[in-house]
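ugh finaly. both done.
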Amino acid sequence: MKIHLTSVFVDDQAKAERFYTEILGFVKKHDVPVGEKDRWLTVVSPDEPDGTELLLEPAGHPAVKTFRDALVEEGIPLAQFAVDDVKAEYQRLSGLGVRFTQEPLEMGPVTTAVFDDSCGNLIQIATKPR
């Protein structure tokens, strides 16, 4: 068994597509219309085009707002992405205007940082423990 797909709820799929591809560097995998305005929109790492897909899922369900607002209020990231160098990625993303809620923080063998994805979520980046 392996993880094939996971998702983040987003306020605006077009805005999320731009942020996750143009800023974070993911590549679009699937973009299929669903209903009147929504899409089955997934992105993947350019390093693993056949790897785990991230669904940029519309946040239309009423429970989503309550859930995400509570996470953001508590500073809890919804998802975590692995990077080779958190400090370098922090500098790169900050230079692109990404707002961080936690600057790089070393915690033993792992360094983390948390940013606002501009679509309603906090996302953590972390180095893999070695």
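ok and the 2nd:
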Amino acid sequence: MNEELQKLMNNLIQIEHVSSTLYLAMSAYMGKLNFTGMASWLRLQSEEERTHMLTLVDYVVNKDATVTLHGIPTQPSDFGTPLETFQKVLEHEQFVTNSYRQAFAYVNQVDPQAAVIIQDFLREQIDEEAQSQTIVNRLKMAENNPSALLLVDQELGQRKNGGGAGAPAAG
């Protein structure tokens, strides 16, 4: 693995590490507000991002390259309303998608195996952004209605491991 590819892969590892920590902080915050379904959804999202990180770590290690883990920035302890929180989720997912798009352009030229992993993550990002957008849209509809907020919370709490299960359908 050349030095530039190693640096790029370590950057993606860092992005997934930060993503996992960010969603865990959001989960704790939503739990504190008694939105247990949103907290559960965000906790599962945190675990999913950690799994992505570990996939990338394993790839770098298996290529006999060096994994460099950097410090994780301190995450906020307040993310605002549920709507504001999930708007931040959507913005973060868009950032992640853009990061993977940029990485794919280079990796596709120098390491077809790494390109397959990144392409798989890019495919998954379509669903990640769509789910986040759907949640934001529903929270906008529910914003001033406590009963509607609790219904969205209940729906998000039905998510199971593996991404989309229990999450609202895109649309």
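summary for the 2nd one i guess: Helices lie at 3-32, 36-62, 82-110, 112-142, 146-156.
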